[in-house]
Specification:
There is one protein chain. This protein has 134 residues and is an alpha+beta fold. The protein is built from five helices and three strands. A three-stranded mixed beta sheet has the order 1-2-3. It is globular and about 45 Å long. The two termini are 16 Å apart.
């Protein structure tokens, strides 16, 4: 899921503390989280993956270019050099972004086919989740 502090995945899904590995990153990118998902599955036994993006996400109103411009403006070219090659994975539509991430994980050879992968959109105004892909 996204690192946005408005998101409470445990509350939205009725998950108790200790029952889930919650992997957060900017935009809730499955590509960005892949190594963590593989570790969670292969070494910790996770059998289910929920991809969660949310309404009003900062990555849905930015592009790779606008993010790079902000970094250069605020931190300088040298800081950008430290981030060379990183992808920010912006998206326009949360539902489509979730569907794309679920398809990516289901196609990945690093995620066993028996792992359940589903996709959700979290509404930051209501705290409710809506299923959009499985």
């Amino acid at each position: 899921t996204c690192m946005d502090c408005r998101i409470e995945p445990a509350a939205a899904f009725g998950i108790d503390l200790g029952d889930a590995h919650v992997i957060r990153n900017a935009g809730g990118s499955a590509r960005e989280a892949l190594r963590h998902l593989v570790f969670s599955n292969q070494l910790l036994g996770t059998t289910q993956i929920f991809v969660i993006k949310h309404t009003h996400c900062g990555l849905s109103v930015n592009t790779n270019e606008s993010i790079v411009q902000a970094i250069v403006k605020n931190l300088g070219e040298e800081a950008l050099a430290d981030l060379n090659g990183l992808e920010w994975y912006p998206f326009v539509d949360a539902e489509q972004g979730v569907k794309d991430d679920v398809a990516f994980l289901k196609a990945s050879k690093a995620i066993p086919k028996e792992i359940s992968v589903s996709g959700w959109v979290y509404d930051v105004e209501t705290g409710k989740v809506k299923p959009v892909a499985n």
